[in-house]
User: Fold these one by one.
Assistant:
Number 1:
Amino acid sequence: MQPLRIALAQLAPRLGGLEENLARHRALLAEARTGGARLVVFPELGLTGYQLQDLAAEVAMRHDDPRLLRLAAETGGLSAVVSFVEEADDHRLFISAALLEDGDVQFVHRKLFLPTYGLFDERRFFAAGDKLRATGSNLGVRLGIGVCEDFWHMAVAETLALDGAEVLINVSSSPGRDLAAIHEVGLGTAASWRTLMRTYAQLTTCFVVFCNRVGTDETITFWGGSEVIGPSGDAIFTAPLFDEGLHFVDIELGDVRRQRIGLPLLRDERPELHLRELRRILAERTDMALDQASEAPAGRESPDRGEAPDRWAAQDDEAPPDRWAALGGQAAPDGRTGRDPNAIPNRWTVSGGNDAGR
Amino acid sequence: MTSDENADGNAEPDRLTPAAEPMFELPPELAIDTAVARRVMVGFIRNQLHQAGFERALVGLSGGIDSALVVYLVSEALGAEKLLCVLMPYRTSSAESVDHARLVTDELGCASEIVDISPMVDGYFGRDGELGAGGAAAREASQLRRGNVMARQRMSVLYDRSVLWGGLVVGTGNKTESLIGYTTLFGDSACAFNPIGDLYKSQVRQVAAAMGVPEEIIRKAPSADLWPGQTDEAEAGFTYPELDRLLFWMIDKRRTDEELVAMGFPVVAIERVKRLVAASEFKRQVPPVAKLGPRTTGVDYLYPRRRPGSARP
C-alpha cells in the first residue's frame, strides 16, 4: 500500500483575524499539495485564534458560510481538517473541526468537552457538541476527530475506535504551562499530552495525529510539538516546540491491520460490559431504578431541542453526507426509509452493540 | 541552548567547580527549564508589540536583576536597537546601581539615557528646609511615602519617554513581589505588559544566569533602592528562597496551612505571608467599576486586549 502523506500545519493564527487566517490556510493547503500530502491537519480554532472571549460571535461562521466553502473549494484531491467557530441555526456557538474534501464540508465535529477551569473559560462562550462519531473519508480509512480537551476524556478515543476509526485526529490549542525542570522538555503540558496520545494509540491500535498550534494569544503561549503516533504507541514524528511549520509525515495504513492482528485489543473490547456497568453506575448516582436511568429510553424520545439543527442531524429524509457506512462492503442504511442508527441520541440503549454498518 | 545549560549549572550545588560559591540559592522545586522559559517570554514580548502595532520598547533599568533580565529578554526579542533603557536615579540612590545598569547597556549595546528624578521628588517634598509643592504635609513624609512618590515619578518619566521613543513600556515586576504586594501601585508595577511577572525571584535569578546577565548583578542583595542601605530581604524579614518556596507550595500547589506546617514552614511565616498576599489583592487587579449598564468593561464586556483594529495605525 502506498504510504499516506500527512501534513501537519503547526501554525500561529492571528487572534480574531479571520480573513488573514483563511488566506494562510489556503496558502498552506497549496504548499501541502505541492509536497504530496493527502491529509492536511490544522489546529483548533486555526481560522480564528483561541482566546476570543466576546469576539467569538464576531468570527463565527455557519458550516455553509461562503468563506468556509471557498476554503473547501481548494481541497480537490486533499482531505483537510480545519477548525473554526461554528454558529448553528439556533445561534449556539461551537468550537468545531470540519473535514473538507472534494470542495465541500463533509463532516463537522463539535467540541464535546469545554474546559472551564484553571486558565480556561470555554463554557462561558461556547456550547458543547452532542455527537461523537467516526467519519468516512477519501483516504480509504475512517477518521475519528476530536478537539483538544475531548481527548482528556477516555471514552472519546475508545468510542471513535469502536466506531471504526483507524486514524484518530486531535486538533488542539494547548496553552503551555507548568514550567518545571523535572518535566520532559521542561513543560508539564507537553509531558501530559505526550503520555496521553501515545496511550490512546496503543490502546485503540489507531494512528493518532495530534496537531497543536504555536504562537501567543494575550498571556497564553501555545507550545506546538505536534505528533504522529503509530498504532503501537510509538511516535513516528514530533514537531519542534513553539516554531511554526508545515511538517510532512508518511504513514503506512497497513500498520493498523498488522497491529490489530498481533494485538487484538479492539477485538477484545467489551462495550456491552462497559455499557451495563455504566448504566448501573448512573442509576446508583441518581438513586433511580436501573431501567429509569438512561436519559432517553429508546422509542420514547421526543423531538430533541438539544439536537444540532445542522444537516447531519436526524433528518429522516436525507442521508448523512459522511460516507460512514461505505467501507466494509456493507450498504449504508437507507436514509429515506430507515432511521440512521447513528442519529438515535442513545444508540447504546437500542442493542448495546455497534450495529452501524462497518 | 548549550549556553543556557552551562549557565544553569551555576544554579545547582557546584559539582564541576567546588571552589566557586554558587551565585544564588535555587530551591529544587522551583527549578525551570530556562530555554523553554526564555522562548516563551521572548515570543510573548514580540507578540505583545506586534499586536499593538509597535516595534520598539523601553524599560526602566535600575541596575537590579529584574529589570536587567527584562532588558536581556527584550533585546533578544527585538534586537538591542529597538530598546531604550531609562535610568532614573534619585540623589540618594546607590552609585553602584547606575554602574550596574551601565554594565547591561554596554554589554547589549542598547540606547540609554539618564533622567535624574531628584528635582521632581524634591520639588514635591521640599529640600533643605524649603517647602516643596506638597507643602508642610510633605516635609515630614515617611520613607514609604517618599519611596512611593519616587516610583510614581519614574513611571511618569517612563510613559512620557515612551511617546518620544515610540515604544511600549515593558514591566519588570516578579511574581514574588507581586504576590506579597511589595510594589507601588501605578508606580513600578505600571507597564504595557510584563514578561517576568510569573517568575519567582529565584527563577528570575536562574533565567538571568542562563542569559548571561552580569554576575555582580545576580549576586548582589536585591533592593528597591528607595533609601540608602535598604534591602528587600531585611525589609520583608524573609530570604527570597524561603519566601519563594512558601509561596510556591501555598499558591501554585494549593497546600493547606496544616500541610505547610507539616512540610516544615514556620507557623508565623505562613500567617504573615498569607496576610501579605490577601492584603495586596487590590494591587494585582484592575480597579472595580460599579455595575450599572447592560455591559460593563471587565465584567460582561470581555475582549482580548489586542485584536484586529486595536493596533496603532
Note: The longest strand of chain B covers residues 56-60.
Number 2:
Amino acid sequence: MIVAEAKSLGKIKEMLASHKRVLVSGCNTCMAVCFAGGEKEAAVLAASLRMAFKIDGVDIEIKEMSVQRQCEKEFTEPLKGGAADFDAVLSLGCGAGVNALADMLTDTIVYPGVDTKFIGITESEGVWASRCSACGECILDQTAGICPINRCAKNILHGPCGGSQGGSCEISRDIPCVWQLIIDRMKRLGIMDKLGGIRPLKDWSAGLNPSKVTKDERDK
Amino acid sequence: MMEKSNLEKVLSLGEFAVTAELGPPKGADGQKVKEKARLLKDVADAVNITDCQTAIVRMSSIASAKLIMDEGLEPIVQMTTRDRNRIALQSDLLGAAALGINNILCLTGDHPKFGNHPEAKPVFDLDSIQLSLMLKRMRDDKLFLNGEELHGAPNFFIGAVANPFADPFDYRAVRLAKKIEAGADFIQTQIIYNVEKFFDWMAQVREMGLDKKVHILAGVAPVKSAGMAKYMKKNVPGMDVPDWVIERMEAAGKEGAKEEGIKICVEIIEKVKNIDGVHGVHIMAIEWEDAVGPIAEAAGLLPRPKY
C-alpha cells in the first residue's frame, strides 16, 4: 500500500486561510490503513480545523466528504457534484489522489493534506516501513525476495558494503543492513549461489516518470 | 598507449608501496592543496585525493589532482558514485585521463546523510563494483558503457577498497573477489588497528588465491588523541578500534599523544608489512599530512624508489 503522514495542522491552516468554503476529502483505502487520511481522519481533521479557525476568528465553512479511492474515477464521481459549492478541496489522498482530483475538478483548487512517503507494509501496530521503490524492473528473483533498491541506502547491488556492522546499516543502527538480511535468507534457503557474480548495471529508465502502463500493450 | 603510473610500476616490480592521502580544501584556494602536497612529496609513491569525503563539499578531486601533479606528485583520484551518474562519471574519467591521471580509486561513497548537504538527492546510479567494471571496459575494450567506441582510450590503474572489519566477516573476501573480477588492480583497506582480525582476513584472501591477482595495500592511520580513538570506535561504522589503542593513548597523556599515535601506527605497519600478500601500506593522516614522512621513515619505507 501507499503510506503517508498527515501534514501539520499549522501547514494546512496556512493553505486554507484565504478560502471561504473548504471540502475535506478522505481516501478510504491506503490512507485509512496508515491512519493518515481515511474517512475517520478526515472527520477529525475537519473538526480540528473548524475549531482552530473559530479560535482565530476566521470565518471558513468546512465540510467533509470521503471516498473509497481518489485514484479511480468510479469512486470520485460523487465529489464532482459535492465540490461544486466549495472554493477549495483538501485531499487526504496520496499524491496520486490529489492529482486525480485536480484533473477532475478543473475549476476548484485542490490542496494536499498528507505527505506521501512510500510503497510499504505495516511493520507493527502504528509502524509502517518502505519496501518497494517502483523501479519498474523487479529484481527480487535475484535477491531472495528482499529489495536492495528500496532498502539499501546506497542502492548497492553487491552488498553488504564496508559500513555494515552487527546487522545494521551505516546510516543508522536502527536500520537493518538489507544485504545482511539477503545473505541470511539465502543461507537459510540454500540459494547462496544467487549471491555470486557481478550484476549488470540497473536500467533506471524502466522506472522513470512520467510513466504509463497500457493494458493492450502490456498483454502483447 | 600512455605510460604506466608510478604506483603501477612500483607494485608490478614487487616493491613495497606507500600511498598517502590528501583532503582538498573547503574553498577555491589551490595553494592550500599545493601546501599539503609539499608535505607528502618524496614520502609516498602516490597520493589519494578524496572525493568530497563524508559527503562534505570540497574542491573537486580531479582539479586537486592536477594541482598536486604540478608539484611533482602522483595522484590517485578517488571517484564515488554518490554524486554522478554514468554519464558524468565517464565524462570526468575521460577528462582525468586527458590530464595524465591513471590511478583511479572506485568507491560508492559515504551517504549524503553524513555530510553538510544532507538534503541532496543521492545518485548511486551504479555501485563501486560496477564502477570498476566500467573503467575496465573503457581501458581494455575501449568502449563506453553503451558499447560505443572510445576515441583515445584511457590507461587506468584501477583501485578499489576493502573493509576486513565489516560484517558478515566470512563474506568480506568473497566481496573482494568480486572487486577483482570487476577489474581492480590494487586494493586499499580500511584503517587497521585490529591486526589479528586483518591477519585472519588475509588468510581467507590467500586461501582464495586473491593475493596473486591484486595488490593489497594495508590501510593505517595515526591516532591524534585518546578522544579520537574513542570517537572512531563508537561512531565510525566499519571501524574496529581495540581497547589497547585507547589505553595506550590515554597513558601517553595530552603531551605525548601525537608521538604515541605515530608510534602505534609504525608498529602496525611493521606487523602488516610481513603478512604474506600485503604489497604496500596506505597511510591516512587526515589533516595531519606532516606525520606521513616521520611514519614512513620510522617504518623503514624511505627513500621511495623513482621510476
Note: The longest helix of chain B spans residues 243-273.
Number 3:
Amino acid sequence: MKRALTRIAPPVVTFVVGVLLAEWLIRALDVSPLILPRPSAVWAAATGEAASLLPALGATAQAVLIGLALSSTLGVAAAVALAASPWIQRAFYPYAIFFQIVPIVAIAPLLVIWFGYGPRAVVAAALVVSIFPVIANTLAGLLSVDPALRDLFRLYGASGFATLWKLRLPWALPYLLTGLRIAAGLAVIGAIVGEFVGGGGLGVLVLGAMRQQRTDLVFAAVAYASLLGLALFAAVGLASRIALRHWHASETER
Amino acid sequence: MRTRGLALAGWLLVACAEDDSKLTLALNWKPEPEFGGIFEAERSGAFEKRGLALERTGGPGAPVVQMVTAGQVSFGIASADEVVLARDRGGDVVAVFATYQTSPQGLMTHAARGLASLEALLEAKGTLAVEPGLPYVKWLEKRYGFGALQVVPYTYSIAPFLNDPTLSQQVFVTAEPIAARRAGADPQVFLVADSGYDPYTAVVITRGETLRSRPAQVKALVEALREGWRGYLDDPAPANARMGPLNPEMDAEAFGLGAEAQERLIEVANGALGQMSEERWATLAQQLSELGLLAKPPQPAASYFVNP
C-alpha cells in the first residue's frame, strides 16, 4: 500500500499542480479561449462531448492495437531474419531505418491511395511508424546473446531452431518489450495522422474541432489520445513484469 | 482547401505584439487569383499612396483567425462562417471587406456520371472528399442527407479525384476544377451557394480593438483593397505575373482561367466591391445556429462586420 502511494503520488501531484497553475495563468492573463482553453473548459468538453469522443477513441484504439500487433509480429520476424547473417544485416538494415525517418505526414496520403480510405490506411500508418523500434531493439537483443551460453548450446549440438527458440528469443525478450514501449506511443501518433487522411477516429474529430474553432474539444481529444498512449504503455509494462519477473534483472530487483 | 492545419501549438504562447506603423495581412493559402486584388493593390501602389505599409504573411495551414485574435497580425483572410464561429467562441474578430459576394465553394464530380444537381450528387453512391468539420458540409447533410455516400477527408490533392470515377470533392471553383480539367478529367461543379448556404468568402478580418483604435487606417486599407480589386477585375494579368513565381504549382494559364472563373462571384451590380449586408450575416448566423454549431444564440448581425 505504501509502495503504491509513493509511486502514484508524485505524478498525481505534478498533474494537479500543473492543471491549477495553467487554469490560474490563463485566467490571469485573460487569454482568449480560441487560443488556449482553460483546463476547466477542456474538462467540460471532455465530459460533455463524450458521446462523440468515446466512439472516436474506440476506433483509434482499434487501429492502434491492430497496428501494434502487426508491427510486433513483423518487427520480430524482420529482426530474426536480419540476425541470421551479417550479410543480410548489411544488405537490409539500412532500409529498415527508412521506417524510422519516414515523414508519416508526407506519405499518409499515399497510404490512402494504396489501401483505400478507412481503417486499413490508418492501421498501415500506425504500423509504419511503430515497426522500427521493434526491429532495432529485438535485433540488438538477438545479437547480444551471452557468448558463453551460445557456446554451451553449440556444445550440446542444439539445432538452429532450438537455439533461436530457447536462447536467442528469450534473451531478446526484454529488448523487444522496451521496443514495444516506444512503439506504443508512436502507434497512437501514426494512427491519428493516418486518420487525418484516411478518415475516422480521433484524427477526424480533431480536424473537425479545429475547423470549427473548438479549441477546447481539440485539447479534449488530445487528452483522450494521451490516455490511450498511457494505457498502452502501462499494458506493455504489465506484460513486461509478468513475462520477466522470475528471471530478468530489470523486473526482479525492484 | 483552407485548413487551419496543425500549427496551432506554435502560436499558443505568443503574446500580443502589434506595431502601429506596420500592418500585416495573413493569407490562408498560397497566392492565387483569390487574392488577386491584394497583389494588384501592391503593384499599383494603392496601399502606398494611402500611407499603408502592408506586409503579407500566413499561407496554407496558418491559423488566421487565432493569429488575428491574438493580435499577431493586424488583418487576415477568413470566410464569413469562421467569423461567426470565432465570435461565438469569444474571439473579437470583425469582417471589413468581402472579396467573394457569392461563395466560390463547390462540390466537383465527374461529368460522365450524368448527375444533374447537388442533390443527385449527394444521393448517388460514391465517395465525397471534404475537410472534416466544414460548416457547409454539415449544411448539405442536413438539407439533402448523404444517402449511400462515403465521406472521407480531403487531403488537398486532386489525385484521388483523377483516379476514382465515383469520387466527388470540395473545390474552390477558381482552382481545383481548372487543375482537374487540365489534367484530363471532365469535371462538373455545383456551387454550394445554390443550395442556400452562401457565406461571404475570402473576407478580410481584423480585431474589434483595431477597428476602434485605428478606424482611419482600416478605412484606408479597405479603400486600397477596393481599388486593387477594381484593377484586378479589369485586367488580372499584371498581378497574376507577380503571383506566378510565388505559386509555381499554377502556371500563367491556370491563373488566367481562375481569374475569369471568379469574376462573377466578386463583381457587384451596384454599390462598392467588398461591401456586406446585415441581412446576409443574419441569415448565415441563423443557419450556423440551426446546424448546432454555435454554443450561444447568434449575435446581432451588425457585430460581425462593418463597411468602413
Note: The mean pLDDT of chain A is 92.
